[in-house]
Amino acid sequence: MKDQIVQISREVFSTLGFRKASVEEIARVLRKKKSSIYYHFKSKESLFEAVLEYEANILRQQVMKKLLEQRSASDKLKVYVKSRMLYIRQLINFYNALKDDYFNQMPFIEKLRKKFDDEEIGIIRNILVEGIVTKEFNITRPDLAAVAIFTAMKGLEIPFMKENDDIEEKINYLMDILFYGIKTK
């Protein structure tokens, strides 16, 4: 039942947005009473958190699968950034539910995303450390570099969400700057 609630909630949040979606509406679509939902989730916020966790798990599985297919740290970092940016655009609720309310809900969303952000920074850091060990990367502060790369990706999420054009070219350009910099020798 809990999984069914999460699945239906994904659809309702996607259609109505976080602010307009209600537990009543989710219960109506489920053809259950509100108490059925409150038995599993204490609030709309905890239900939304479960939906984000579900979608984060999808992202995590997709990205990790692609990372395991790569041999070099350089390839892993490229694949990570590209697949993460492309996949996150597809996440139904993160974008559709927040498209109109994102800035109004920023503190709530940032609190929910904190644990996912820390996990992503850890993945990037591990790739960078691997690249340092294999002498692919010439960086001395992998922790700081991981935060910088993550911050660049996170900063591009909203512009990528709002634009309907092909984002692969922009991601490739970001990757070029990341790997080759902007300064001439």
Task: Describe the model.
- This protein has a domain at 53-180: Tetracycline Repressor, domain 2 (Orthogonal Bundle), CATH 1.10.357.
- It has helices at 2-20, 23-30, 34-40, 44-68, 73-90, 92-96, 106-133, 142-162, 168-180.
- It is built from nine helices and no strands.
- The chain has 185 residues and is an all-alpha fold.
- Helices cover 78% and strands 0% of the residues.
**What's the CATH C level of the domain at 53-180?**
Mainly Alpha
Helix vs. strand class: mainly alpha
Order of helices and strands: HHHHHHHHH
Secondary-structure arrangement, i.e. CATH architecture of the domain at 53-180: Orthogonal Bundle
Distance between the termini: 61 Å
CATH fold group of the domain at 53-180: Tetracycline Repressor, domain 2
Helix content: over 70%
- Unreliable stretches (pLDDT < 50, length at least 5) are none
Overall body shape: elongated
Number of strands: 0
CA-atom Rg in angstroms? 19 Å
User: Tell me about the biggest sheet?
Assistant: none
In terms of DSSP E residues, the strand content is under 5%
